[in-house]
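Quick start: read one record
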Amino acid sequence: MTCPDDARLDYWLDEALAEAEAAAIAAHVADCPRCAVRRLTRLTEERLWQAALALDGAELAYLARANLAAAWRTAAAPAVAQGAPLAHWLAALAVFGGVAAYGAWSTALPAVGEGAGWLSRLGLVGIGLSWLLGQLWDAGSAIDLLVPGDPTLLLAAASFALWLFVARPWVLVRTD
């Protein structure tokens, strides 16, 4: 067997390999002096890191006196209690806003649809669309701030949305 790379050796030292592969690497490390030295070096480095990161007596005593779990429980309880009414108000505002928007739209939709129908019958929709697209095209500098480059795609999307609003192609025509 060839010497395992550093990652395989680390996995073996952490006992994260399958049993067969771990046994093969253990047999190789027992026979290979270079890998035995690598193993001892890694174990020494690990002990040094554990010693460097270990808490000393003063730190352990401070943590014992601090009783952090109790401090976190008492500090978090008032914040939740104070934030609860705000959360209730925001939820109520969202529900009220949705109901109000639906009511306004369902109330205004017949009038807007009838007005658009009259404009369409009078032939003013084409004139209105032409004027609106002209205004949008003249406002190119403002559109360039929103859409860098050519505003044609934005204008095409706006005209398609306006056409959908005015024509409502999904509504079936009744022949009474």
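DSSP finds eight helices and no strands in the chain.
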